[in-house]
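job 3f2a | input accepted
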Amino acid sequence: MKTWQTILSDGIQTLCNTDSDIERIFVPRMEEILSLLDRYIREIELYNLAYGLTGVKDSEELVIKHILDSLAPLGIIHRLLASVNNNEKTQNTSGLKIADAGSGAGLPGIPLAITLHDCHFTLIERMSRRAGFLWNTKALLGLSNIIVEEDELKKTAAGQFSLVTFRAFKPLEPKLLKTFINICSSTGIIAAYKGRREKIKQEILQLTNNKGKKTENFLYNCEIFPYKVPFLNEERNLLVIMT
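job 3f2a | predicted structure (243 res):
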């Protein structure tokens, strides 16, 4: 029977084998990244019951449904960031600012910050206990590219992020989407971790129509990117909205 550590390393190797950009990110720092993820997982397990961080039943589920799921679209996210930075050829993402909205246990923000160590991450979380967990985890892992913002998302300063990402969040609706767009830079991107494509299409339809009429004065440039999570037999997609 595989340990969760083996599942994590095997899953990451699978991601590297299927996406050359993920491979380029991981290979030079593989030992360091695995060590940081190991410590992060142990912290979630330590505080999960007290803080209600995730609803997983065991370590294997935590690794597959949360850590590997956060990392599976890493190549897509990296390419999107490179395009924002106008460096598609060099794949340079250095210095870009990323927000993890409703960060909770730091998912996907902390796994992304561990791997994209040249980007600056803001983990936005309104609940004090969870924000405290994020501060402690940042200090424990020595993640200098992370800051934690304990506040409502709508109070975040406008126009500062190249990418806003979130998962396990409530369905998008016009008011929430406006808040995301508000904190994005003029060329920013929203990347939503989602499940089934058909359900995403329904969300998009509700965003753009209200009894056949447009609800907003701006158009959304939406694209759905499928991604595969190792060891997970569930449909997963990344909904990307260009602002």
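job 3f2a | The mean pLDDT is 91.
job 3f2a | closed
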